[in-house]
Amino acid sequence: MHHFSAITYMTLGSRSDLRQMWQINIPKMAIHRSFLIHSLFSVAALHMASSSPNNQTSYTDRAIRHHNIALRTYSIELKNITRDNSASLISCAALIVLFAFGLAISRPFEEPMKPIDELLGIFTLLRGLRLVVEQSWPWIQESDIGPLFVGRDVDKTIVLSDEVANAFKQLEDRMQLTISETDRNTYEPAIQILKDCFKVASSDDRNNGMVLSWSISLSPEYIELLDSRQPVALVILSYYAVSLNEIRDSWWVMGWGNKLIQEVYQVVDDEWKSLLVWPMKKIGERT
Fold first, then answer.
1. Fewest CB within 10 angstroms: 78, 162, 209, 286, which?
2. Whether 61 and 168 share a structural domain
C-alpha cells in the first residue's frame, strides 16, 4: 500500500486530479472493498517487479496471487452493479487491465503468449469495464473517480497530422477496393475511434489511459475478425500499436507497441504489408 500511494500512483496519470484520485480516493475506497484492495496490491507488486530485477519473480508471484483473489470477488460483485459499488468496480477493472498489460512484460521466466492473443484477452477484460460504465454512468461522473473520465471528449478543433491522416487514407482506400460492405461496416467504427484517440493524445488533457478507450469501444464483430487474423483487422491493430508506443515510457505498457507490430508483420498476408510501412517506421523511430 505504501509503494502504491508513494510511487505507483504517479505512473498512472500525469494530471494532478488523476494523481490525487489514484493516491487518495481509490485507496480510501479500497479499505471497504476487498476486491479493490487486492487489485491495488497486484498492480503495486507488479510495478515493484518491473523495477527490481533481482526480485522480479517474487514480486510477480505476489502480484498474480493478489490478482487472482481480486478476480474472484470482483466477478461476483459485477453481477450486481449499484451506486455504492460502481466506482470501486470501475477502479478495479482499470487496475485489472493495467495488470494484464504489465504482466506480459514481467514474466520473462515463462513461455510468453503471442502479443495478439494477450491483447485479445485484455479486450475481453475491457468489455467488462464497458459494461460497468454503461450501467453506472449517471453515478460515476460525480463520484471520487470522476477525473478518470475528464478529457475523453474529442476536441473538434484538433485535426490529424498529415502523416497520420495519409496513413489512414491509404487503409480506407484499400478497404473500399478489396473487402465486403459488411466487413467495412465493422472496421469503419474501429478506425474512426482510433482516429479520435490520436486526436485526444495530442490534447492538453491527455492521459496515458486514453489508449484503453479504443479497446473498450471495439465491437464483438471486430474482435472476432481479429481473432481469425483477417488482414484489415491486423492492419488496424498495427495502427493501435503506434498509439501504445507513444506512451512507451509507462512501465505497464513498455515494449508493447514494438512486439505487437512485429507479430502483425509476421502473420499478415504479403499483399497487405505495404500498409505496415507507416506504423513500422513510426514505431522504429521512437523505440
1. 162
2. no
pTM of the model: 0.87
CA distances from 278 to 95, 235, 253 (A): 32, 11, 21
- The CA-based angle 67-102-259, given to 5 degrees, is 140
Q: Do 67 and 91 share a domain, yes or no? A: yes
Range of the domain at 50: 2-149
User: Total structural domains in the chain?
Assistant: 2
- Answer yes or no: is 87 within a domain: yes
pLDDT tens, N- to C-terminus, the chain (287 residues): 999 999 999 999 888 999 999 999 999 999 999 999 999 999 999 999 998 888 999 999 999 999 999 999 998 998 899 999 999 999 998 899 899 888 877 765 455 568 899 899 888 877 777 888 888 888 888 899 988 877 666 667 778 889 999 999 999 999 999 999 999 999 999 999 899 888 876 665 555 666 677 888 899 999 999 999 999 999 999 999 998 888 888 898 888 999 899 999 999 999 999 999 999 999 987 55
Grid cell digits, residue 68? 487472482
Residues 87 and 13 in one domain: yes
